[in-house]
Amino acid sequence: MRSQEIRAKFLEFFKERTHKIVPSAPMVIKDDPTLMFTNAGMNQFKEFFLGNSVPKHTRVADSQKCLRVSGKHNDLEEVGKDTYHHTMFEMLGNWSFGDYFKEDAIAWAWEFLTEVCEIDKDCLYVTVFEGSKDADNLEQDTEALELWRKHVAEDRILFGNKADNFWEMGDQGPCGPCSEIHVDIRTKEEKEQVSGASLVNMDHPEVVEIWNLVFMQYNRRANGNLEPLPAKHVDTGMGFERLCMVMQNVRSNYDTDIFTPLIREVETIANAKYGKDEKVDIAIRVIVDHIRAVAFSIADGQLPSNTGAGYVIRRILRRAIRYGFTFLDTKDPFMYRLVKVLADKMGEAFPELRVQKQLIENVIKEEEQSFLKTLDQGLILLDTMILANKGRTVDGRKAFELYDTFGFPIDLTALILGERGYELDEKGFEAAMQEQKDRSRSASEVSKDDWVVLSNDLEQEFVGYDLMETSVKLVKYRKV
Ligand code: ATP
Ligand code: MG
Ligand code: MG
Ligand code: MG
After folding, report:
1. 168 domain-assigned
2. Whose CA is nearest to atom 21 of ligand 1?
3. Directed axis angle between helix 357-388 and helix 410-419, to 10°?
4. What pLDDT, on the 0 to 100 scale, is given for residue 361?
């Protein structure tokens, strides 16, 4: 079944069960100071759960565009390395606002997966909240357990602790136990090779979580106490790309028809082959993942920029360009050429991609041109540095200058040095980095904005961005 049909099946299933099908909320959030990007289907319904507003429909379903690159959910570093975490992904969800509760939520989830999707029951596991012995002193979710027992064999029901099976939105507000559904994507033969006990091993990389059913039945008060909610709610989220992987009988989200057209295009552009060399594969996965995050953001009106959400988008795009530059040898703009493929593939479900296609292409191409120039300049400087270097180890402070002044990524420096038989003095680099951080910390103590102007009495010239994934947002200027 093609991804298009799978999405439609989900929505149709819940429509038949009198859910109102609503559009995805924008992925970029403009009016919530606590959240930059939508990271779960429930975000747009937050006010209903908090009781601040009353929903028009008590049953709702949709496919929500999500981005998990900052804050509590940050999957950026997993992307490319594993095959089922994305930056941007679709979360299929069904909700009950004070309407049905555990019984229907569980029965429908099971029916959808095993009857509509025809997933083999022997590949599915479900989890139930085991209770907690902490201050909350919560009981096991026996209600969910009994309901699952109607559908699932006993040895396929596993118990999870608070970290995995109790969901809270924040320090206060609605919360409750959850049940997750996991799919074992190993073949029968592979499963037979391991002993009985380790079959039920949810930490196995090929046992993948696909659907989370949250049962909101408590309210966490400001004093930390839990009280039962007068109206109980259901909030579910299923990874669409993961469901497609299972349905299309492949082992990686990237082998579904959501990603293969993009991968083929990268192969053509870069004259590369996917599936031969792990490093190249990771780069290709990063590129086809990141193009989605960036294109959908621009379609939502968030252009790459120097601050806030725009800066996050710029860094994601540059991360992809860098992977291409390093592992696929792409020295010219190429990411923008993927937009057409993406809009063809996803434009029906998300028309904003088609409407904004030209803008998205132009913005991405310009970003690429300017960043590639930075990389080029950095390379020339690096060459000079290598020529002037005595011995085989290159001074970490020198490498830091390159990084600091030109935004030349340090991992690229290390890679190039390695290729030429040199070694990077990493300790020296770290030390220089730390000093820089200390300097900017004291500078930012007097600055209210999220970037630091090193000098404000002189005219300034913009010279580069801080590209480390882990460090704070910082735009660098120097005196001219
Ligand atoms: P995981 O444990 O795999 O990181 P999660 O528990 O963080 O997932 P939830 O917050 O429960 O995820 O989100 C609901 C569903 O969304 C998950 O069951 C999964 O199928 C999907 N999902 C979560 N994060 C991602 C991601 N980064 N890329 C693709 N799908 C995701
Ligand atoms: Mg996660
Ligand atoms: Mg999880
Ligand atoms: Mg989960």
Report:
1. yes
2. 239
3. 50
4. 98
Taking the C-alpha atoms of residue 44 and residue 401, their distance in angstroms, rounded to an integer, is: 44
Residues with CB under 5 A from ligand 4 (ion): 212
Q: Which ligand 1 atom lies nearest to the CA of residue 178?
A: 11
Atom of ligand 1 lying closest to residue 68 CA = 27
Q: How far, in Å, from the CA of 205 to the mean position of ligand 4? A: 15
237 and 273 in a common domain: no
**Cα(402)–Cα(418) distance, integer angstroms:** 17
Which residues have CB under 8 Å from 317's CB, separation 6+? 290, 294, 304, 335, 364, 367, 368, 371
- Tell me, what CATH number does 143's domain have? 3.30.930.10
Which residue carries 């295009």 as its tokens?
265
Using the mean position of ligand 3's atoms as its centre, give its distance from the Cα of residue 86 in Å: 14
Q: Are residues 244 and 122 in the same domain?
A: yes
Contact indicator for 450, 363 with CB cutoff of 8 Å: no
- 354 lies in which domain range? 259-375
pLDDT tens digits for range 1-28:
999 999 999 999 999 999 999 999 999 9
290 in the same domain as 221: no
Q: Which ligand minimizes its atom distance to the CA of 82?
A: 1
